[in-house]
């Protein structure tokens, strides 16, 4: 894809200028917003490809912005925040953020997170994946129409829950899914806090999917937060 348009939402002028300068040096196009209201208006009117979002804005909490934007847009949102507690990360990811970077951050890490996000955007745009399509990631292949998954050409014998978990992760490849989001999507709202059951099913899925479950290639654990399916290049 062409260089994406990135919306920087940050009320601290020094941090905003640092991010803007970093993007400019990498030839990225960008917009800036210093308040939540400006951010929502820019997201709606300028149609940026990616949002870099600070949570602590003067007029609106960043989580509220994520929820508003998710009402009409699936653009990737990378949170950049001084809030480092697991609860803050989980709330932002549950609201619809795609990634979470804690301040103080390195410029190199920010650029690396951006590259990962851009690769995922490029993949989505090139494949235009629909529910009845075939998903391929490394040696993993999921035929959604047939309801089957294969690893290195051999069919995986999955339980219905394992298959549902695998599909949910695959359809959000590269994105951290929180425990609450996964359990709600797979079992329903009554089970959304049953992390213990999720861990059991994830362990059995990994045994079937990973060559070495202790060093997983496909499903990455984010301790205290959730899981992410990694894109195998």
Quick structural overview:
The chain folds into two domains: 5-126, Response regulator (Rossmann fold); 131-229, Winged helix-like DNA-binding domain superfamily/Winged helix DNA-binding domain (Arc Repressor Mutant, subunit A, Orthogonal Bundle), CATH 1.10.10.
Would you mind describing this structure in some detail?
The chain is an alpha/beta fold. It has 2 domains: 5-126, 3-Layer(aba) Sandwich (Rossmann fold), CATH 3.40.50; 131-229, Arc Repressor Mutant, subunit A (Orthogonal Bundle), CATH 1.10.10. It has 8 helices and 12 strands. It has helices spanning 13-25, 36-46, 62-69, 86-95, 107-127, 160-170, 179-187, 195-209; strands at 5-9, 29-33, 50-53, 77-81, 99-102, 134-137, 140-143, 148-151, 154-155, 177-178, 219-222, 226-229. The strands form 3 sheets. A 5-stranded parallel sheet has the order 2-1-3-4-5, with helices on both faces. A 4-stranded antiparallel sheet has the order 6-7-8-9, covered by helices on one side. β3 (50-53), α3 and β4 (77-81) form a beta-alpha-beta unit. α2 (36-46) runs parallel beside α3 and α6 packs across α8 (195-209). The longest helix is centred in the middle third of the chain and has 21 residues, at 107-127. It is globular. The mean pLDDT is 88.
Strand order of the largest sheet: 2-1-3-4-5
CATH superfamily of the largest domain: Response regulator
Distance between the termini: 17 Å
- How many β-strands, per DSSP? 12
Largest sheet: 5 strands, parallel
One letter per element, helices H and strands E, the order comes to EHEHEHEHEHEEEEHEHHEE
- Number of folding domains? 2
CATH C-level of the largest domain: Alpha Beta
Radius of gyration: 18 Å
GO molecular function, one term: identical protein binding
DNA-binding region: 132-231
Pfam families: Response_reg (PF00072), Trans_reg_C (PF00486)
Domain Response regulatory: 5-118
């Amino acid at each position: 894809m062409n260089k994406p348009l990135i919306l920087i939402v940050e009320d601290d002028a020094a941090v905003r200028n640092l991010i803007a300068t970093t993007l400019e040096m990498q030839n990225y196009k960008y917009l800036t917003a210093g308040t939540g209201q400006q951010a929502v208006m820019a997201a709606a009117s300028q149609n940026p490809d990616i949002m870099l979002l600070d949570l602590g804005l003067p007029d609106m909490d960043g989580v509220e912005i994520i929820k508003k934007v998710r009402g009409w847009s699936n653009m990737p949102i990378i949170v950049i925040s001084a809030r480092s507690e697991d609860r803050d990360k989980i709330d932002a990811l549950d609201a619809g953020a795609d990634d979470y970077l804690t301040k103080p951050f390195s410029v190199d890490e920010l650029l690396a997170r951006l590259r990962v996000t851009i690769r995922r955007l490029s993949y989505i745009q090139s494949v235009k994946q629909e529910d009845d399509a075939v998903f391929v990631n490394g040696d993993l292949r999921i035929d959604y129409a047939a309801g089957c998954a294969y690893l290195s050409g051999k069919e995986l014998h999955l339980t219905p829950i394992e298959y549902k978990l695998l599909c949910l992760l695959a359809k959000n490849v590269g994105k951290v899914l929180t425990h609450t989001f996964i359990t709600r999507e797979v079992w329903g709202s009554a089970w959304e806090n049953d992390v213990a059951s999720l861990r059991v099913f994830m362990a059995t899925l990994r045994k079937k999917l990973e060559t070495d479950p202790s060093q997983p290639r496909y499903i990455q654990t984010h301790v205290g937060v959730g899981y992410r399916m990694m894109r195998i290049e």
